């Protein structure tokens, strides 16, 4: 029994010394891995303000005539899930009446001649204008007339109106953003700019061919510039 005791004594002595030794400071790598509050603040992403919290744009009352050269109504849809084509409804005509003192008294009226439809493919343009879709020979234009305009917080508006396609009229809601009111730097007249979006079902308007393989839902994205009409006989330079 003497030999096992002799072997255990050095082990017990080693454990006792280790227990009485001062603790080692934490490794530098450990302290670096523990983030400080300041580091957390620097690393955390800065939350952007919600759209409704954006600073209101100071509107200027007036009737603004839509500029077709700087207005796009772009439709996008899914084609069998393979691609997401777009088409632009150009040559927009119409006016935006804005009442800064009573936004609810504002109004929008727009006509989109199908002659301005551009899908970036001549063959497809012809197909879209055919009786399979818009039947442009019989129904040459799409129209939108607002029925209400409501402030939606900050620089946003909610515009409800009647959209008419192929003599079918349905209500749609545009989520609009006021981009700017200012004097146009070239025309030297009051100008206004807006963006808007909405989603609708094309089958509601008699253009639902190939749905649902070609998506029934279509997203519309609109951007427009409009200016107060020039005085009669005045020459206005436009960009």
Automatic annotation (TrEMBL):
Task: Please indicate if the UniProt record lists Iron-sulfur as a keyword.
Answer: no
Domain Lipid/polyisoprenoid-binding YceI-like, residue spans: 63-227
According to the UniProt record, where is the region Disordered? 26-47
Question: Where is the secretion signal located?
Answer: 1-23
Assigned keywords, A-Z:
Signal
Q: Mind telling me which PANTHER family this protein's record contains?
A: PROTEIN YCEI
What name is this protein filed under? Answer: YceI family protein
Q: What is the lineage of its organism?
A: Bacteria, Pseudomonadati, Pseudomonadota, Gammaproteobacteria, Lysobacterales
